[in-house]
Amino acid sequence: MDKRFVLFLVLSVIVLVVSQKLFPPARQTRSATSTAQSADSTRKVASDTTHRLAQPDTSMAVRSRTAASADSAARKSAAVRAGASAAEAAAVPVAPAETVTVTTPKVVYQFSTLGAMPIGVNTREYKALAPGGGTVQLVRAGSPLYRYDLIRAPGDTLHFDRVPFTVDSSALHAGGAGSLTFRGTSGSSAIAITYTFAPDSYVVRVKGQVQGGPGGQAMLMTMPTGLHSAEKDTADDEHHFAYVLKPAHDSPNSIDFRKLDTAVAQVEHGPLTWVATKSKYFVVGLLTDTTGTPFSGAVLRGVPHGKEIATKASATAIQPLGANGEFAFELYAGPQEWRRLVAVGRDFDEVNPYGGVFKGVIQPFSTVIMRVLLWMRAHLKLSYGWVLIVFGVAVRIVLWPLNQSAMRAQLKLQRIQPELQALQKKYKTQPDKQQAEMMKLYKEHGMSPFSPLAGCLPMLIPMPVLYALYYVFLNTIEFRGVPFLWMADISQKDPYYILPIVMGISMFVLSWIGLRAGPANQQAKTMAYIMPVFMTVLFYRFAAGLNLYYAVQNIAALPQQWLIAKERAKAAPAAAVTGPASGSPSGSAGSAGPAG
Q1: Residues 352, 358, 360, CA angle at the centre, nearest 5°?
Q2: pLDDT > 90: what percent of the chain?
Q3: Which among 219, 228, 231, 259 has a CA at the least distance from the CA of 243?
Q4: Quick check: 145 and 284 in contact, CB under 8 A?
Q5: For the chain, domain boundaries
Q6: pTM of the full structure
């Protein structure tokens, strides 16, 4: 099996998988009205379904609810919700909202006294790469991070964004440690919500309780309709917008905004461990504690967007209230730093699943690669650009013995290829005799029928690493904004396309060395010219770090390829002399094709 042909097939799959990522459709602007109507409709659908999703036997209740019923409720709800909001505004005098700011070493949080909800999250350690600079603000202007609604009975919903709260900051200490408590009343219901902060963390513990009044069935937490993009390439960032849900007994499920139906609400059945909104590098997640009450479900809906990138959607998580009207969860609002997500637990590090349809194969490689790269960065004290160079060379050194064995196996196979073809022709009408003679020939040369496969498989080992690195560079915030040499950001494409060209040239040189001392092979020669051009065109828009790694891989492989070419050149004359004397059908059994 020719290595280049296998590589061509594998890379063809890459083209199919990433083509839509490389060439996203044009963007357009949508009105805020359609977004608000979609969000209200989604909250109403969640309200209508809560009396089933929030029952103690949630599994039976959820199974009884269908997407059709959710759609029916959604169609009835938009006008009802709009009218209800107007009625509330007219009937209930609302105090002016005040903003409460909590500053920790990692984040600056802002809360509104109207609704006791977070309305601002500013990550202090990450710079905005978009024009205007500053630090990364996760919340879009005029939109809360999330908001609360209390479902008291079917058709009876208390909207917290109409309830004024007072603030108790007596338990909040310097440096952002401690807690902040909001208290409010609505009719005969007393509401308390407490946020507890940790100085060196992006996790906020949220506990609430509703006492008195008509009681309640569940809390609805309406997620962000999308995060504020602080990236230089805003379109690429928005292309990664998605909701991710983690079922209690299954792997996380990522749902892109563009895949959500704008007309039919999508009901995700619980129990759910967490629900998150993510961009390319940042995430807002609501996580239930392993010993607490899981979310009983979530309702998602798209926002009409035509043929553009979907930048907005609507999602509501549902958590049943406890016996005393309490609810609790954890809020993570910050970067997708791999180590921090792992520390959060509950498989939150899979909020950005690597590998797409190949997740089962790619995710383990991605995990290993992230551990190795982070370890190298911490211990070698090098920038990530140099870490990738060291990593690329190290991979080649580790694979050197395996590749050496594979290349020599290919040499052996090429030497006996004329004899194999002669046997196949001689015993064409005698399959059993042909098989026996071929087995005898393999045995004489210390080989087996599986030797061709064994020679090809080692060549494919670096491919999962390359795939994994592609996904790592696609979403890993550790590489975001990291400069190296002439590049301002190795997570973006090379602005001068130097690395893709170097990668293509090094690949051609590698192929040219592999063709030396071998017989004329038109297929191998054609691939030697086509593949470098194909790879250069494919990779020119990929992350500069990925091109750097692949170019280093090719350059590091040159010595080994050169040594094998010399070995083949030495073996070719001897084979040419001994071949006819041994009765070789071709008279030149040692003539071989390319080793690489």
Answers
A1: 80
A2: 38
A3: 259
A4: yes
A5: 34-350, 374-415+455-581
A6: 0.76
